[in-house]
Amino acid sequence: MLTIYSDDHHLHHGRCELMDGQLMPCFEMPSRADHVLQRVKDRELGPVQAPYDFGLAPLQRIHNRDYLDFFKGAWARWTEYGEDGDLLPYTWPARTLRRVLPTSLHGQLGYYSFDGGAPITAGTWQAAYSAAQVALTAQQAIQRGAHSAFALCRPPGHHAASDLMGGYCYLNNAAIAAQAFLDQGHRKVAILDVDYHHGNGTQSIFYDRRDVLFTSIHGHPEAEFPFFLGYADERGEGAGEGFNFNYPLPAGSGWDTWSAALEQACREIEHYGADILVVSLGVDTFKDDPISQFKLDSPDYLTMGARIARLGKPTLFVMEGGYAVEEIGINAVNVLEGFEGAAQ
Description:
By secondary structure, the chain is of the alpha/beta class. It has helices spanning 30-42, 57-60, 65-80, 105-111, 124-143, 173-183, 200-206, 255-272, 298-309, 325-343, and strands spanning 2-4, 17-19, 22-24, 48-49, 148-151, 189-193, 212-219, 244-249, 276-281, 315-319. 37% of the residues lie in helices and 13% in strands.
């Protein structure tokens, strides 16, 4: 399997995030992608290639131009204040406030964010831009005939909406790739999100559309981030009604419970008749992940990959979460090896 990877991800290394009432070191760190890349090489999964640059146009198919302009220029504006620490929001346009776009940097950051978990640093824009190009390069490989490809993206993307960053995510790599498939002639794309946390950004982007089926297996938002999206009754709206399927599961769920939800999601994908499958590959479902509560073990990821392969779809894997750094490479590559073994 071809892996696309950019060393630009090292340019983004946040010092802190807001969690549990305090500023603490970021769980989303460069070593995450480093461990996955090393495992790809150790297991001789296949060639590793740097991304091509497709420019801003594919990003603008998903993200608002004003949002992209803000994100690209935020660090320069921050340094004009003489600051060099992480740029984090401290106020948001909540329910009783007016949703207007202020002129100040901090006001705009709050407008374009939904939490305090996506710090902007000097290299964040370039890292996120390159991650999107990683996804697009892997997408191009499949468009040209490859049955599968792995986009080793960092930072991740599935929490990013068209004009919102949050949850470690800035640009929605999976959504950008899915839209590229549609723009290049495919009629139906299915997205399977297996990250522990609901892909709220991806859902919101495609919620009123029927050309992308979104399915997500995740911790129940009654108790888990992002809290305000990911419930089972969210089925899409307008033209997209009936094309959104969430499978929220309780904390402590192991493989038996999780795999039953996977089976339901796969049946929906089969019924949909997608041309292409995009997998938002989060492995924070692992039993020892520090910020998640499922109980999957490393061999389960081989089985997961094999079940996805039985869908028989050209499949793009896009890296999302996973924070047990020593095991993230094992678990992510197990999915890919399980897929490849079953697809042969």
